[in-house]
Design goal:
Length: 138
């Protein structure tokens, strides 16, 4: 069974609110927690250090938004595989057809990184419950 996060209205140690917010609708609802990963960490760092506008919400997916979340997550994973696959194919074409192999390898790495960054435009983080299940099956 999924772990449901209850609302907390207490102020955190850094003065930030710790209440759960849905990543789909943005409302303060109870729901299934989102797994904190490198991309969310980078976004939080950017908001904390550059824009100075970090809210510190605990990110969840509420029950009413769960079907929308599953579609968005599936679309993100499919796009990530597609874009990185296209990047690898373009990189192979660059290496095979390029005259200077070292320069072609450099350009191919740039192409793969760019295609991966394009896949992040539709980023949807994974749920903490699914991440725990994947770790337990290994």
């Amino acid at each position: 069974m999924a772990k449901i996060t209850k609302r907390k209205t207490a102020i955190g140690a850094a003065g930030r609110r710790n209440e759960p917010r849905c990543v789909i609708c943005g409302k303060a609802n109870d729901g299934i927690e989102i797994q904190e990963d490198q991309i969310l960490g980078l976004l939080r760092w950017f908001k904390r250090n550059v824009t100075r506008n970090e809210k510190g919400y605990k990110l969840v997916v509420c029950k009413s938004c769960y079907p929308i979340y599953t579609k968005s997550r599936k679309r993100f994973v499919n796009r990530q595989v597609l874009y990185v696959g296209l990047g690898v194919i373009l990189s192979l074409l660059l290496v095979i057809g390029g005259g200077n192999k070292l320069l072609a390898v450099l350009y191919s790495i740039i192409v793969i990184v760019f295609m991966y960054a394009l896949s992040l435009l539709s980023y949807m983080p994974t749920l903490k419950v699914k991440a725990q299940r994947q770790n337990n099956t290994r």
